[in-house]
Amino acid sequence: MKQTNIPDDRFAEQWQKAFENKTLEPPSHVWDTLQTELSAQPLPKVPAKGLILNKIVLSTVAAVASVGLAYWLLTTRVNTETMPKPTPSETEIVVPAQVEEPIKNNAGKSQKSSKKQELARKKIIFVMPDLIPDSIVEQREAKKLIDTVETNTSPNIQETPENILPNLSIQKPKQEQQEVAPTNPIKESEKVPVLVEEQYFNPNALPSKIKTKRTKKGKFSFGLGGTVQQ
Amino acid sequence: VTFSTKQFIEKLQQGDQQSQKLLYQAHAPKLFVVCKRYGKTTAEAEDLLQEAFLLIFQNINSFKHNSNLYTWMHRITVNSAIRAFHKDKKHDWAPDHNQHEIVSDETPLDNLALGDLLNLIDQLPKGCRTVFNLFALDGYSHQEIAEALQINVGTSKSQYARAKALLQESLKKQDRYYETN
Lengths: 230, 181
Prior knowledge:
- The complex is a heterodimer of chains A (230) and B (181).
- Chain A has 230 residues and is mostly helical.
- Chain A has ten helices and three strands, in the order ααααααααααβββ.
- In chain A, strands 1-2-3 form a three-stranded antiparallel beta sheet, with no helix packed on it.
- In chain B, helix 6 packs across helix 8 (153-180).
- The A-B interface holds A 1-6, 8, 10-12, 14-19, 22-27, 30-31, 33-35, 37-38, 41-46 and B 10, 13-15, 17, 20-21, 24, 28-30, 32-33, 36-37, 46, 49-50, 53-54, 57-58, 60-61, 96-105, 107, 109-110, 112, 114, 117, 135-137, 160-161, 164-165, 168.
């Protein structure tokens, strides 16, 4: 394509000069339609100076108030941080005693529920400390003392002679000593139910026939939830 | 900005109808020429002018006093024309021709009336005309045109070259016509 020999800028200048001061009166109906459209769409009004001043004052006050609030929040936060926090043993009281009891009928379920309880306890421990007022803490401490007394005398813990009179040494029968010792290697599978039975449960509550079933890799599981490596 | 102009703009900002009419009467004839350059028909040009003034009155609060009011209004009018260009999906561009007559740079534009000038521009295909208007008469660079019309810079340049050639060709034909008659 062959181009014209006039430079672009000069060509533009010529046209700009040609259009300079050229005007064309638009038809009157353009203004009429414009007026109708303007009345249909009200223009955004500029607020009066007084209103602007009021706005400035209000925004300044709001800004100062927000800064003050932020400062107050920060300072109060520091105060709570410096306060002595309750120890985990204190906060443990928050968890109700009945929730902590494991379900003994099913071994798997009891493990899961205990995990849940642990998580719940942790949650309470991490969330609560700053929010507990002193009076409530005192009340809980008192409750804790009661609970500890109750748990010591609760039927879940076997009333062994050591628990009742820990300072006295009582001669135990030989057979019982062997069964209670946890380090004893269990070789004969027949003895295992007896061990479980005496260590954790009331022997009267045992079923007459204990079912055994084989699980993975030579483990035996018993009806009461105990497993023994073969 | 003189005090009176400042006061006038403040009145416009407050939505004073008398001031709006004064502004329209002062600048509409100039801006209507701009609209006629972009619009293919008179009706199209009228619509563009109407839309431009509506935007001017609606956005007068954003006008900064340190700039020229007419320049600001002109910019709004050109932007309206660009928007109208995008609304119209069919854009005809000037095709490239391998054979083109070399013409002299002596163009008798000064002697032409507004109607003749507008007729010359009207002969250009729409895309080509828009590029010509933006570059030659409204001071846009090819980069700005490419961004505004969403085309390549190369397309903008080639369309402007085509517009230039077509306009000069038309002028030469017009000269010959006047010479023979």
